[in-house]
TrEMBL record:
Residues 13-359 form the Enoyl reductase (ER) domain. It holds the Pfam family ADH_N. InterPro entries: ADH-like_N, ER, GroES-like_sf, NAD(P)-bd_dom_sf, YIM1/Zinc_Alcohol_DH_Fams. This is Alcohol dehydrogenase GroESlike domain containing protein. It comes from the Eukaryota. GO terms for cellular component: mitochondrion.
Length: 372
């Protein structure tokens, strides 16, 4: 099969690290497992792909895979089921699926990928594979953060925490436009009727403004106003929920200042993985979980703030929101060939992408005909 392998970790031109191969083996499926073999039709590039190419999570990858490289990157995929293990009961051959692959396995920058059943869901029926490939990580992250962790439902509907009460309109702040999560979060907040404000980079200001104008919120360009958090705090502006997609210590400190007492701080930062990268699997995991508990206790004591570091996985409710038109893909650029993956990495690295970058892997009809 065809695929793109990460030949070695390091900085520099992606073309020097990513190698296009036509002689890769289709990953063998163990019939006794819950694995699903998927023929990949489209994939998208996420910031973690770029980070891993440079060596992020290298220590844990070495332990988990018993090797560092070569390996195949890629997390978001859309495709068709071609084979299932005996314990994979949710899908059958021919099903169209989407999902995110595991950090500990080869990814979906190839014509076929082996995915554990829980990491997949039925793909939205209303989207092409190219459009759908822009959503798995970003859409699930936004939904799980705001709805599951933030407990935000439609205004006036039964409260997720107390069904006998109704959901009040909340003031929500989105920090950052990382990987399309910010746009999807604003789509959800607009649909549910909550007040939203956000900070993002200059190219995304018009897009963000269009999504929150009706709610009377504010969009801030952090390149023009680097001290935005201090200004908002000085004006006495406070929020019930804050979703931080930036995930740095500085961003966290800025965000917490803007929360009301009793508010919720939701972070997409992979804190445990960050510390594993820095300290190794055992010590990093220990430090990571301790850091989370410490932050939760300190913020609860200081400001009665609930802290949640959001983890993601597939969810059928997200698919329904996509099919209803609530969540819409934000695609900036489509590359027509897997061999262009290094160019896609370079585009993101230069900061030129204004939405998701998607790679076509196989045409569904052509691939199906070739399989027969």
């Amino acid at each position: 099969m065809r695929g793109v392998r990460l030949a070695s970790f390091g900085e520099g031109d992606p073309h020097s690290r990513l190698e296009v191969r036509d002689d890769l083996l289709v990953p063998p499926l163990n019939p006794s497992t819950n694995d699903v073999l998927v023929r990949v039709e489209a994939t998208s590039v996420n910031p973690i792909d770029l980070a891993m190419r440079k060596g992020y999570a290298r220590k844990i990858l070495f332990r988990a895979r018993a090797k560092e490289s070569p390996m195949t990157l890629g997390f978001d995929c859309v495709g068709t089921v071609v084979q299932t293990g005996k314990s994979a009961w949710s899908f059958k051959v021919g099903d169209r699926v989407w999902g995110s692959t595991s950090l500990f396995r080869d990814g979906c920058n190839a014509e076929y990928v082996l995915v554990e059943e829980p990491a997949l869901a039925q793909a939205p029926a209303n989207l092409t594979s190219v459009k759908a490939a822009a959503l798995p990580t970003a859409a699930v992250a936004a939904w799980k953060a705001l709805v599951e962790s933030g407990q935000l439902g439609p205004v006036g509907s039964p409260s997720p925490l107390n069904p006998s009460a109704t959901t009040d309109r909340q003031r929500v702040f989105i920090n950052g436009d990382s990987d399309g999560v910010g746009v999807i979060a604003l789509q959800l907040l607009k649909h549910y009727g909550h007040h939203a404000s956000a900070v993002c980079s200059a190219p995304n200001v018009p897009k963000f403004t269009q999504l929150i104008d009706a709610g009377g919120g504010e969009v801030i360009d952090h390149t023009r106003e680097p001290d935005w958090a201090a200004r908002l705090a000085g004006e006495g502006k406070e929020y019930d929920v804050l979703l931080d997609t930036v995930g740095t210590d500085e961003a966290e400190a800025q965000c917490v200042k803007l929360l009301k007492r009793g508010g919720k701080y939701l972070s997409l930062r992979p804190l445990v993985l960050d510390l594993i990268h820095e300290h190794g699997p055992f010590m990093g995991a220990m430090k990571g979980w301790w850091s989370i508990v410490k932050k939760q206790v300190e913020m609860k004591k200081e400001k009665d703030v609930l802290v949640n570091y959001v983890t993601c996985g597939p969810d059928g409710k997200v698919r329904r929101l996509v099919e209803e038109g609530v969540i819409r893909p934000d695609v900036d650029r489509v590359f027509d060939d897997l061999a262009q993956l290094p160019e896609a990495h370079a585009l993101l690295e230069r900061g030129e992408a204004r939405g998701k970058v998607v790679i076509k892997v196989q045409d569904p009809l052509t691939a199906a005909a070739a399989a027969h």
